[in-house]
Every structure is written in structure tokens, then in C-alpha cells.
Amino acid sequence: MTLRELLGGKEKLFAFCKKNKWLLLTGVLGLFLLCLPVGGGVETPPVIAETAEETFSAEAFEQKLEEILAEIDGAGDVRVMLTVGRGTETIYATDTLEHVRTQEGVSEREHEESLVLRGQNGSSEAVERVRVYPQFSGAVVVCDGADKASVKLMVLSAVSAATGLSSEKISVLPRK
Question: Using CA atoms, how far apart are residues 120 and 125, in angstroms rounded to an integer?
């Protein structure tokens, strides 16, 4: 059985399309939207879980990364240097109070902003709203096995996964 026999000829096909044109148009538009790329190529920094008392240390992260990379088969002795775009930034919670005064038809707006404080046992401290961790901007890895393509690829992949950097921002070099 052919498609033409199944649909009952051109006339029935055109009648079906004419009757259901909005449904077909919506389906085609949906397929088109599914094919569009998403994300825009923006790199996101890795999520680092920490308690409030802990702070980010690039040196400690480098040390941890060196230990992990040294476990890769054939990597040998490993040294890592990471460059950081900016330091850790803390954004504190604030209260905003807005006053609107109208005198003789002229309106004046005043904004008052104050830190939200949390007190405990007679002391008070600002309430942390968001902590923005540093973004890595590049990495250099020097290791014994970097002259082998397979080791270099594994090291590159591991550094990319740990830091969120793309491969063009990571350099893996052999030790002298």
C-alpha cells in the first residue's frame, strides 16, 4: 500500500492540510525550536560546596588537583598552576526603604539601604546573601607523561572537568 492510497489522493491530503494548518504550523515551529542551540557558549564556574567558615583557596585547589592528576596512569610527577580572574566576593543582605515626598506638585524620592544584621549573644554580624566564587581563567599542567598523547588527553579532560575551563585555556606540557 502506498502513501497516496493511504491518504486517499492529493485532494484529501490538501483538504487535511487546509483544515489543520494551525496544528501543522505549530508542529513545524516546535521542531524548529528543538533544533536551535541553547546556552550561547557561556562557561559557568564550577560549583564548590563550602560551609560558611570555609574560604576558597586557589593553592589548596591546585594541591588537590595535583594529587588527583598524579593518580592518572602514566602522568608521573605533576605540577599545576591555576590563574584566577578575581577573588571570592560576598554579597550581603540589605533592607531598602524608599520615601516619596510630594511638595507643591514636585515628587522627591529617597532611598535608604541598610545591612541586615543577625545577632547572637550580644554580638551582631551581617547576613550573607550570596557568595560568588572565583572563576578560573587558565591552567598550566606540567607532568612527566605529557609527551604521550593519551596521557595528555586524560590530564586535559580531568583539569577541564575540575575547573570548568575549556580545553583551549588549559596547557599540558612535559617536564624537562
Answer: 9
138, 170 Cβ separation under 8 angstroms: yes
The overall longest dimension of the chain from CA atoms, in Å, is 87
Cell of 7: 491518504
CA proximity to 138, closest of 110, 114, 167: 167
DSSP string spanning 68-113? HHHTSTTT-SEEEEEEESS--EEEE-EEEEEEEEEETTEEEEEEEE
Tell me the sheet residues that pair with 72. none
Ranges under pLDDT 70 in the chain: 1-9, 37-55
And the C-alpha cell for 125?
554580624
- Residue 13, number of CB atoms within 10 A of its CB: 14
Predicted TM-score (pTM) of the model is 0.50
At residue 76, the pLDDT reads 92
CA separation for the pair 17, 14 (Å, rounded): 5
